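Long-time lurker. I teach an intro course on protein structure, and each term I like to show students one example going from raw sequence to a predicted 3D structure in token notation. This year I'd like something fresh instead of my usual example. Would anyone be willing to generate the tokens for the chain below so I can use it in lecture? Attribution to the forum is fine with me.
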Amino acid sequence: MPDQISLEDRFAIEDLLNRLCWAVDTGDAEGVVSCFTPDGVMVQGGGQRFEKTEGLRKFAEKATEPAGAKGRQHIVKPLFFIRSGDGWTMRSYLTILHCDETGERRIRGMSASDDTCVKTPQGWRIKERKNTVWSAKGQPWVGR
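-- Reply from a regular --
Happy to contribute to a lecture. Here you go:
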């Protein structure tokens, strides 16, 4: 595999991550699960892990509960790609916007995400998704 990601693979991985966000934001739990490999892992900002298809389904069901999900939008901003074994890790910013029943809009969350993706016979899939809450205490700060 070359040291620089091909445009085709880059766009396919970005598309996969956008499909994941769409599935979460539209309540499609099976769509969420389909974005991962069968042995995939989801690590939330607080450290909670969901592993393999059974765990990912629990994550998806929790993430798509109407009470917390309706009116929500995940916005992914890809930053760069890092080689990771036979695949690539896309580092991105993730912002969660929310519009409640009254029409009030607010930022619900900010994080950084590392999505390690591998190419499967079905196309690119997420092997591991790790979110880091972005705050004055939680960001990966380098320097003073």
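Some talking points for your students: The chain has one domain: 7-133. The beta strands are 36-43, 49-51, 72-84, 87-99, 105-120, 123-133.
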